[in-house]
Structure formats: C-alpha cells, structure tokens
Amino acid sequence: MSLAINLSNGFKPLSREAFNFHSWEDYLSSLKSAYRRRIKLLTASFETIRKRPIPCSQFDDKMYGQYIEVLRRSKGKLETLSFGFFQNLPPEFELTAFYHAEVLTGWMITVSFRKKLYFFLGGIDYTLNRQYHTYFNILAEIIKEGIEMKASVIDLGQTAEIPKIRLGGKPVEKSMLGYHSNPLIRQFLKMGRRLLEYPVKVNENHVFKEIL
After folding, report:
1. Domains and CATH numbers, the chain
2. What secondary structure letter does DSSP report for 120?
3. For burial by CB atoms within 10 Å, which of 41, 70, 127, 177 has the most?
4. Which has more pLDDT, 209 or 27?
5. Between 198 and 173, where is the model more confident?
6. Which residues pair with 53 in a beta bridge?
7. What is the torsional sign of CA 175, 176, 182, 188?
8. Mean pLDDT across the chain, nearest whole number?
C-alpha cells in the first residue's frame, strides 16, 4: 500500500481534493482548521533548517547511516540497499539534504515521471527528530515540491500512514508478483503470501474543506 495526494482534476467535483493547488498557501487554505493549525505548528520548527539540493553522487556516509537507522526501525523492510546504490542513481533522482548549521538532520530522494512526483527514499537523525519534526517536515517539503512543479499526483510512498493521511494522503493499493519456475516453490509462495501482505488497516481522514 502506498499513500498519495491527488493534485489534478478528479472524480469528486464538490471536494477541494479534486482541484489543483496553485501554491503551498493555497494548499494550506484548503485544509480544515485543525489540520492547517497542526501543519503550521510543526513546520515552524523547521524554519532554522537549511535545504540543500545536491547530486546523488555526493551521497555520504552520514546519509547512509541515517538510511540504515530508518531501515532498522521499519517493520516492512525487504532488502538493504548498498551505499553505492545511492551514489549511482540516475540523474533524474534528486537528493535534498537538510542541515541545522552543519548538522545533517535528514535527507530525501525524489523522482518525477509523467507529471507524478515520487518520494523514493529518505533518512533522518532520530536524536533531532522530536526537536525539528524532521520526518513530518520532509513530507511537507515533498508536497511543496510537487505543487511547485505542478505535479498531478504526489506519491508519498509506503508506511508512516498517520502523518501522510493528516497531510491529505489517500491509500492506494499495491500488488507484488512472486514467481518461481519450480511448481513446488510456487505452491509454497502461494501458501505463504499472507506473510508478505501489509497488515495495517488505514482509516482515511477528511482533511480538506468541502466547497459549497
């Protein structure tokens, strides 16, 4: 399951979710007051953070350590990507690092394709996360980036459902194919498929105001 924000015209003409957001301020004004107030409160803690876009080839050991820490805490990890994987991503992948003074508080990698913006991977310093609400603010930065590039959809990726839903994300069901040439192994895959299913049930929040 992935969570996404639809920024293009949709099938709910009476809902603010079905219209384009022209700016971050437009997006904020479209939210119900409780959600708008929470976002403003949490993003205020990020005002002292410096945003630095850099090539993926400059991905460093500190960033990789933060990725490993995020992976360690994740319940749905499938594999551990190598340091070289990040440094050798194609140029379409954009790395953005966030610093307080010279301290790396977190980073994100995004990629756009066919008017859609995808949150690929990220890392955070958990010792500073409570102070700067880094993960939440990374999500907010992705939304800002998507609005600025006039993306039709912002895909916020998997896991961390609650903050993404509170930002207006909607769950999108995903499927994964498991196959093996050996019919016996295929049968085992079929029997064990529930072990690979994502068990979390998500309750959608109606975060946007209705248009009368």
Report:
1. 2-195 (3.40.630.30)
2. E
3. 70
4. 27
5. 173
6. 96
7. negative
8. 83
